[in-house]
Design brief:
about 270 residues, Alpha-Beta Plaits, 9 helices, 9 strands
Length: about 270
């Protein structure tokens, strides 16, 4: 059995909340100011950790009002930032709507695929003199480069589209009964679609098998929300998605700073 291998980086939490607007409206200006000052301090502290990052988004639709995205080095660090929010007065005005835990991951097949292309471009092929040594060096070089994706900050673009997904394993089609070569070929084609958008979309894949209800959590980040529609639509026609993918709910957000929290809670969209 050829089980795909992955490299793992930060633990991630996508945390979505509704605001209890009726309760918030009952506060005096001084009470709101006190709550906001404390909440801003929590958010600024959470986003300035040495290992990891935090970002806040204003959520579009009735699926939520606020989404906090946390990257941390361990489950304990994720839990700590969760618990810190629960100690703030703001937490008394929040109602949970959705959350998702995963680990940023990169496929080892992708690492080896890039290494193989680098050697091929140099005219080195398996069996050639010096190939084995060059292969080892190329793979290690790509492993190091992947750290930039595995241990990164939350991408800075204005918009986020987050969704969980599975690979089908039903009676008609089952991703997990395909051979390694079949899976690899399909994902290579799938990746080529995504690569067309790499200059305008940053994609962060979180592996969550055994961690949450779906198998992956996908975050797309861009300064143009329309690109999410075009990218996901095009990928739906790719066999890896058309035949074998199942998608969960989509959460759209507009990135907001700690300083804009007061504006959000006074009913003003992020500028």
């Amino acid at each position: 059995m050829d089980v795909p291998q992955t490299l793992e980086g930060w633990y991630t939490l996508h945390d979505v909340w509704n605001v209890d607007w009726a309760a918030w409206a009952l506060l005096s200006d001084d009470e709101r100011r006190s709550v906001l000052d404390e909440a801003r301090a929590w958010l600024e502290s959470a986003s300035s950790v040495r290992r990891g990052d935090t970002a806040m988004y204003s959520v579009l639709s009735q699926k939520g009002d606020l989404m906090f995205v946390h990257y941390r080095e361990s489950p304990e660090a994720l839990n700590a930032v969760e618990l810190a929010l629960r100690q703030t007065a703001l937490y008394g005005f929040l109602q949970p709507t959705y959350s998702y835990v995963s680990l940023i991951e990169v496929s080892l097949n992708e690492v080896m695929g890039i290494a193989a292309k680098r050697l091929s471009d140099r005219g080195l092929n398996r069996g050639d003199e010096g190939f084995d040594e060059a292969w080892t060096e190329a793979v290690e070089e790509q492993r190091e480069k992947m750290k930039e994706r595995l241990y990164r900050d939350v991408p800075p673009q204005k918009y986020i589209s987050f969704y969980p997904m599975d690979k089908k394993r039903g009676e008609t089609v089952n991703w997990y009964t395909l051979s390694a070569a079949e899976r690899r070929d399909m994902m290579r084609g799938h990746g080529s679609v995504g690569h067309k958008y790499h200059e305008v979309v940053t994609q962060v894949i979180g592996g969550s098998i055994g961690l949450d209800d779906w198998e992956w959590g996908v975050s797309l980040h861009s300064d143009d929300m329309l690109v999410f529609k075009k990218l996901v639509h095009e990928m739906r026609f790719d066999p890896a998605s058309a035949l074998y993918a199942e998608f969960g709910p989509f959460y759209l957000g507009i990135r907001s700073s700690a300083g804009s929290l007061g504006l959000l809670l006074s009913g003003h969209a992020p500028s």
